């Protein structure tokens, strides 16, 4: 039973959903926000099941009747899914969805649509969804799944009930990666990275992540001590290792963890992503103010955002490194 | 499930059902055709969620035996392959057998196909039919009604409900209306009801479904049963059921749009006006606005003209059978009028104008079952 599994993992969320179904107080639109691996997709499906399931008890679906099975297999005509087409959800997709909703339900009753990675919606797609979200012609429920609700249009955010999923526990994930044969150092890093980025690297990831980790440490110390060298390292090593956009995104994440660690050192606490680099972290933490760390983190986050906007990888990294040097 | 079936009957049925199956569906199960065998015969279902077609092959029809059922059951098979395979099988008979895990064997002559099926439980269920709104009409009348209204539906998605044809029924009169907010086509017909009183309102059938339905309709006087349910409409033929989903939303009230008085009235020969409009449109088509000007002359003649700034102009005089009322100059979209004239089967038509800036109607003169309404175009 998936529902019971989910109740263990996401107790708050699942209780909330269960109560809503049981008391028939479902909102017309939800935003499910949570990290990769927080299993929000499954929760959304389960909620759809409990709406349609004929044998639901106390808001829990039976997960074995025809309705439940059809939803789980994506075969229910009144439960629709929207996935990004390429990098983003296009306006045409939203329009196609709306067109589908101009028809009455195939089997009468509520219609449900799940939008995966809703944050990738283009502005025009978001805007055309908006009206429809607010004034559907028939009883409908929308579930927008996203990793970052702030990327959604504010007008959409304000029209949906936001449900935040707890991130999976770091310690459980670290333990999992160690079981897979990772060294403790890289397991810690892997556990911090979102699930999906790792999906493709399952096999080579071990070597790759260890090297990436070393590069981050090298780059940071060069930014600090030998500013002239940093740009060279970027060109010779960094961009060779983090080749495409996805890989670079992971690289930026690793970089971000370093600054987070710095902050933890200053605040004396927390778990460290680079526990074996304590010496370096401590010495750097002494020479940098909290504001500077925050500014650096902001630079990295900005870079991550620009990466999505198709900025040239090399230019992006060079700008970031220069910013980091100025900031430190 | 296990049965043997006459190939010809089966192929015919599969082809019908296959029309409804779309390869671009988002629901995986709808790429398949559902086959259900009961002791009475074999039922095939295909659907793209907008329309569904169900055919039935009876076990026997008195003269001939079509199906031998050995075991009841059902299965869903990939339509793309199944339809092709069935067409190309060599034997007179086809044997269909389903084993564990939805594995299906098709056997005909010395050919054996093993196909992987899908779970029939997952197939969408077609609506339960209540006989409340149930009426009958001859196939050729329905075909006419569809042809005479469906051309006027809107092609724009801005107001989705206008992409359909609205059915309204009172007592035993059925009214079909289609409009794209610039023109309106209305067709009435009397139908036979099963339950006595019929009351339909706001039943909007998508234009696309009706175009599909038109392909199934034959030019015969055989009766079709039409049953309207909450979310779908069913057209019931002998051994074939055609379901269409209905459009959601409120259809605009069109009754009071139709003017009841006229300032100018013309009676014209349909063909003459049609061909004159065709000629006039040769020029305005270039300008892409399709605007045609119409002017009444003294000796019960009208002048049809069209001007295109780059190309030139055309004028033509047509004599009317009768002309009454005030003088008039009016401009309108000639393409829309042509569409309407093409579906009017009568020899002569009556055009009633209510002024240069208000809508006008076109009706056949020999009956009042049909009406077309147009709004004029402002040209200054």
Automatic annotation (TrEMBL), chain A:
<dbReference type="GO" id="GO:0008408">
    <property type="term" value="F:3'-5' exonuclease activity"/>
</dbReference>
<protein>
    <submittedName>
        <fullName>DNA polymerase-3 subunit delta</fullName>
    </submittedName>
</protein>
<dbReference type="InterPro" id="IPR027417">
    <property type="entry name" value="P-loop_NTPase"/>
</dbReference>
<dbReference type="GO" id="GO:0006261">
    <property type="term" value="P:DNA-templated DNA replication"/>
</dbReference>
<dbReference type="InterPro" id="IPR004622">
    <property type="entry name" value="DNA_pol_HolB"/>
</dbReference>
<dbReference type="GO" id="GO:0003887">
    <property type="term" value="F:DNA-directed DNA polymerase activity"/>
</dbReference>
<dbReference type="InterPro" id="IPR050238">
    <property type="entry name" value="DNA_Rep/Repair_Clamp_Loader"/>
</dbReference>
<dbReference type="Pfam" id="PF13177">
    <property type="entry name" value="DNA_pol3_delta2"/>
</dbReference>
Automatic annotation (TrEMBL), chain B:
<keyword id="KW-0963">Cytoplasm</keyword>
<dbReference type="InterPro" id="IPR022635">
    <property type="entry name" value="DNA_polIII_beta_C"/>
</dbReference>
<dbReference type="GO" id="GO:0003677">
    <property type="term" value="F:DNA binding"/>
</dbReference>
<comment type="function">
    <text>Confers DNA tethering and processivity to DNA polymerases and other proteins. Acts as a clamp, forming a ring around DNA (a reaction catalyzed by the clamp-loading complex) which diffuses in an ATP-independent manner freely and bidirectionally along dsDNA. Initially characterized for its ability to contact the catalytic subunit of DNA polymerase III (Pol III), a complex, multichain enzyme responsible for most of the replicative synthesis in bacteria; Pol III exhibits 3'-5' exonuclease proofreading activity.</text>
</comment>
<keyword id="KW-0239">DNA-directed DNA polymerase</keyword>
<comment type="similarity">
    <text>Belongs to the beta sliding clamp family.</text>
</comment>
<keyword id="KW-0548">Nucleotidyltransferase</keyword>
<comment type="subunit">
    <text>Forms a ring-shaped head-to-tail homodimer around DNA.</text>
</comment>
<keyword id="KW-0238">DNA-binding</keyword>
<keyword id="KW-0235">DNA replication</keyword>
<dbReference type="GO" id="GO:0006271">
    <property type="term" value="P:DNA strand elongation involved in DNA replication"/>
</dbReference>
<feature type="domain" description="DNA polymerase III beta sliding clamp C-terminal">
    <location>
        <begin position="256"/>
        <end position="377"/>
    </location>
</feature>
<dbReference type="GO" id="GO:0005737">
    <property type="term" value="C:cytoplasm"/>
</dbReference>
<dbReference type="GO" id="GO:0003887">
    <property type="term" value="F:DNA-directed DNA polymerase activity"/>
</dbReference>
<dbReference type="GO" id="GO:0009360">
    <property type="term" value="C:DNA polymerase III complex"/>
</dbReference>
<protein>
    <recommendedName>
        <fullName>Beta sliding clamp</fullName>
    </recommendedName>
</protein>
<dbReference type="GO" id="GO:0008408">
    <property type="term" value="F:3'-5' exonuclease activity"/>
</dbReference>
<feature type="domain" description="DNA polymerase III beta sliding clamp central">
    <location>
        <begin position="136"/>
        <end position="252"/>
    </location>
</feature>
<dbReference type="InterPro" id="IPR046938">
    <property type="entry name" value="DNA_clamp_sf"/>
</dbReference>
<dbReference type="Pfam" id="PF00712">
    <property type="entry name" value="DNA_pol3_beta"/>
</dbReference>
<dbReference type="InterPro" id="IPR022637">
    <property type="entry name" value="DNA_polIII_beta_cen"/>
</dbReference>
<dbReference type="InterPro" id="IPR022634">
    <property type="entry name" value="DNA_polIII_beta_N"/>
</dbReference>
């Amino acid at each position: 039973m998936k529902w019971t599994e989910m109740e263990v993992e996401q107790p708050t969320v699942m209780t909330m959903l269960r109560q809503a179904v049981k008391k028939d107080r479902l909102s017309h639109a939800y935003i499910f926000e949570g990290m990769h691996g927080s299993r929000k997709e499954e929760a959304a499906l389960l909620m759809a099941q409990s709406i349609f399931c004929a044998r639901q008890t106390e808001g829990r679906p039976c997960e074995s009747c025809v309705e439940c099975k059809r939803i789980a297999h994506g075969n229910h005509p009144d439960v629709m899914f929207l996935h990004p087409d390429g990098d983003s959800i296009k306006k045409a997709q939203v329009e196609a969805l709306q067109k589908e909703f101009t028809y009455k339900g195939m089997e009468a009753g509520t219609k449900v649509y799940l939008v995966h990675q809703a944050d990738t919606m283009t502005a025009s797609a978001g805007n055309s969804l908006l009206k429809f979200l607010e004034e559907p012609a028939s009883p409908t429920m929308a579930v927008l799944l996203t990793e970052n609700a702030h990327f959604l249009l504010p007008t959409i955010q304000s029209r949906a009930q936001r449900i935040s999923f707890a991130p999976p526990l770091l310690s459980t994930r670290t333990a999992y990666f160690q079981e897979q044969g990772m060294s403790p150092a890289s397991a810690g890093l892997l556990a911090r990275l979102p699930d999906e980025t790792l999906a493709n690297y399952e096999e080579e990831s071990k070597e790759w992540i260890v090297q990436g980790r070393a590069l981050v440490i090298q780059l940071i110390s060069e930014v600090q001590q030998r500013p002239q060298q940093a740009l060279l390292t970027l060109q010779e090593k960094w961009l060779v290792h983090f080749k495409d956009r996805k890989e670079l995104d992971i690289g930026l994440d690793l970089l971000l963890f370093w600054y987070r660690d710095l902050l933890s050192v200053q605040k004396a606490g927390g778990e460290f992503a680079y526990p074996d680099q304590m010496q370096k972290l401590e010495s750097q933490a002494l020479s940098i103010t909290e504001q500077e760390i925050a500014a650096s983190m902001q630079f990295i986050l900005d870079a991550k955002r620009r990466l999505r906007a198709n900025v040239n990888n090399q230019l992006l990294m060079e700008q970031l490194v220069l910013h980091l040097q100025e900031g430190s | 499930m296990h049965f043997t079936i006459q190939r010809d009957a089966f192929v015919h049925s599969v082809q019908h059902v296959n029309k409804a199956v779309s390869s671009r569906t988002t629901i995986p199960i709808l790429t398949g055709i559902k086959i259900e065998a009961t002791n009475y015969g074999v039922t095939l279902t295909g659907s793209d969620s907008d329309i569904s077609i169900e055919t039935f092959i009876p076990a026997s029809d008195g003269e001939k035996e079509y199906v031998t059922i050995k075991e009841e059951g059902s299965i869903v098979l990939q339509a793309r392959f199944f339809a092709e395979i069935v067409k190309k099988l060599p034997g007179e008979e086809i044997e269909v057998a389903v084993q564990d895990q939805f594995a299906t064997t098709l056997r005909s002559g010395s050919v054996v196909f093993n196909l992987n099926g899908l779970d029939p439980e997952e197939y969408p269920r077609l609506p339960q039919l209540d006989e409340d709104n149930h009426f009958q009409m001859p196939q050729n009348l329905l075909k006419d009604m569809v042809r005479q209204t469906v051309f006027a539906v809107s092609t724009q998605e801005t107001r989705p409900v206008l992409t359909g044809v609205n059915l309204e029924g009172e007592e035993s009169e059925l009214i079909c209306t289609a409009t794209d907010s610039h023109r309106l086509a209305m067709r009435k017909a009397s139908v036979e009801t099963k339950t006595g009183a019929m009351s339909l309102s706001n039943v909007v059938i998508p234009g696309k479904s009706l175009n599909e339905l038109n392909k199934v309709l034959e030019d015969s006087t055989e009766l079709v049963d039409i049953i309207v349910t909450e979310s779908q409409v069913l057209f019931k033929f002998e051994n074939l059921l055609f379901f269409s989903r209905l459009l959601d939303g409120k259809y605009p009230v069109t009754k009071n749009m139709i003017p009841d008085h006229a300032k100018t009235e013309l009676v014209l020969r349909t063909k003459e006006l049609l061909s004159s409009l065709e000629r006039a449109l040769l020029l305005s088509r270039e300008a892409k606005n399709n605007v045609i000007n119409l002017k009444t002359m003294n000796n019960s003649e009208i002048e049809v003209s069209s001007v295109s700034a780059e190309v030139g102009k055309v004028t033509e005089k047509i004599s009317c059978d009768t002309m009454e009322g005030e003088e008039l100059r009016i401009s309108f979209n000639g393409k829309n009028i042509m569409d309407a004239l093409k579906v009017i089967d009568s020899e002569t038509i009556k055009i009633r104008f209510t002024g240069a800036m208000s809508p006008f109607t076109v009706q056949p003169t020999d009956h009042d079952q049909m009406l077309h309404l147009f709004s004029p175009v402002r040209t200054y």
